[in-house]
Amino acid sequence: MSYPTILVHLDRTAACKVRADLAAQWARAHGSHLVGLISTGLIDGIIPADELQSGATDCIAECAEYLRLRAEAIGHDFRERVAAQGSLSYEVRLIDSTTVDAVVRHGRTSDLVVLGQRDDSEVKDMTTRDLPQRVVMEVGRPVLLVPYAGRFEGVPKNAVVAWDGSRESAVAMRAAVPALRQASKVTLVSCCAVHADSGADRLLVPDVLQFLARHGVHATAESDVTDIDVGDALLSRLSDLGADLLVMGGYGHSRFRELMPGGVTRQVLAQMTVPVLMTH
């Protein structure tokens, strides 16, 4: 079990280069084919007025040309960065769909999707502020979310698996096995609020550790009782352990087409400081 195809979403944000480099490093480590996906923005782009020449006679054509050239420039930069790091099977796809639909559709033909964390300071010209949560809820594949701040290099060596015995956490753990195999340290963390049932029978921690061991992952486990918000407790424990990857299930509920993440999921998406491998 591995990630034969890794897809990374590319855009013009400042954090894109870090995300693309990390995706390429994961692809090399797992012998994967890497797909750089770029939505041109023809459908959901908002173009700043100062980007176009004044006096344009055909605004629609000018906008389309601007978006196409911008996407090609992003793809060119991606190719150069991948080639500079050594041999790797890769391709670039330019798609004229909305960004969410493009990532979801192409992500479903991949084994791992790499996205950037939402950055409210990056307003620029794309209306994709809800991209991470939408993709996590809809794509049906594991998603590696990369924080917009910081540098993250190589495959993780110190991973934390958030475990609460739920379907979501089980699916996330299973999807993370290829990454966990390469880690030097794996910690199974269960956070329980004070006065709540610890659910030892439901968690089956010894069985989980045996499951991981049979997949070549040596892990230890800890159970933390906290009087603060579970999301805060989990993020704090990541810092204490010096972790460089968090594995967790993505929790949410649907309202017609709008898919909303649950409380802990939403908090981690907003406050993560290390890459998070998440599935729904």
From TrEMBL:
Pfam families hit by this protein: Usp
SUPFAM superfamilies with a match to the protein in the record: Adenine nucleotide alpha hydrolases-like
Gene3D superfamilies cross-referenced by the UniProt entry: 3.40.50.12370
Domain UspA: start-end pairs: 157-279
Transmembrane segments: none
Family assignment from sequence similarity: Belongs to the universal stress protein A family.
PANTHER family: STRESS RESPONSE PROTEIN NHAX, UNIVERSAL STRESS PROTEIN HP_0031
Record protein name field: Universal stress protein
